[in-house]
Design a protein that fits this description.
The protein contains four helices and three strands. It starts with 6 loop residues before the first helix and ends with a strand. It has a three-stranded parallel sheet with strand order 1-2-3, with helices on both faces. 48% of the residues lie in helices and 16% in strands. It has 80 residues and is α/β, with parallel strands linked by helices. It is globular, with a radius of gyration of 13 Å. The longest helix has 10 residues. The protein has one domain.
């Protein structure tokens, strides 16, 4: 059985592939503070929601997410 990826491995993969991470794990804020960014992170503040809820939230906030991708001085957005 394979082990889950560590937070550092996830960040490295996201950086290598130019991905924005979507997570509800606040540990990624600590990594951004420690390592800076990229990769960029979307932090979901509504834990334990359905996939459909998260999809609707991301779609509703797509303009803010696009700004996160566009501007280099920002590395985190929190969605409620």
């Amino acid at each position: 059985m394979s082990q889950p990826a560590t937070d550092n491995q996830i960040c490295s993969f996201a950086l290598k592939n130019n991905f924005i991470e979507i997570t509800n794990d606040s540990d990624f804020i600590d990594l951004i503070n420690l390592l800076n960014f990229p990769p960029k992170v979307i932090l979901l503040k509504n834990k334990n929601q359905s996939s459909n809820y998260i999809l609707d939230l991301v779609v509703a906030k797509i303009s803010e997410i696009n700004l996160l991708e566009k501007f280099t001085e920002y590395g985190l957005i929190e969605l409620f």
